[in-house]
Amino acid sequence: MTFWQMLIGGLMLLVISAVKEPIMQTNWSAPLIWSLLYAGLMGSAVAFVLWFWILQHIDASIASIALMAVPILGLFFGWLQLHEPLTANIIYGAVFVCLGIFFASVKLRIRKPKNEIKKSA
User: With contact defined as beta carbons under 8 Å apart, do 97 and 72 qualify?
Assistant: First the structure.
């Protein structure tokens, strides 16, 4: 299903971009074509295959928590590779995202008072 959705969506975007964007201004070089192929294959096809493989081995509720770390990884790799600045606000936000991931993934036991246990029995 994902393949068909991406194929139809990609074709529709190709038609719309051919109508709206001047194709003559695009420099179709080998690095551009390789970049598009890499992004399409690795970023879409391989990522979906890996995702569905993971879902066969791990519960979806647990696996989906890992997706919440994507913005944090984006910040880290942007800082590492592109030398983007990490301001205090960005670091505070990343800490809150990490805390949210932690609280979403950890199951806390709630103790009932002994009075409630006796009443329910």
Answer: yes
Q: How far is CA 111 from the centre of its chain?
A: 35
Phi, psi of 114 (to 5 degrees): -60, -30
Residues sharing a CB contact under 8 Å with residue 18, sequence separation 6 or more, in sequence order: none
Nearest partner of 65 among 54, 49, 80, judged by Cα: 54
At 60-76, the pLDDT tens digits run 877 887 788 888 889 99
6-63 residue pLDDT tens:
789 889 998 998 888 876 777 888 998 998 888 888 887 888 888 889 889 988 877 8
Every domain of the chain and the residues it spans: 1-57, 59-121
Predicted TM-score (pTM) of the model is 0.49
Q: CA 73 → CA 48, 61, 81, 106, distances in Å?
A: 19, 20, 12, 21
Q: Quote the CA–CA distance of 97 and 94 in Å, as a whole number.
A: 5
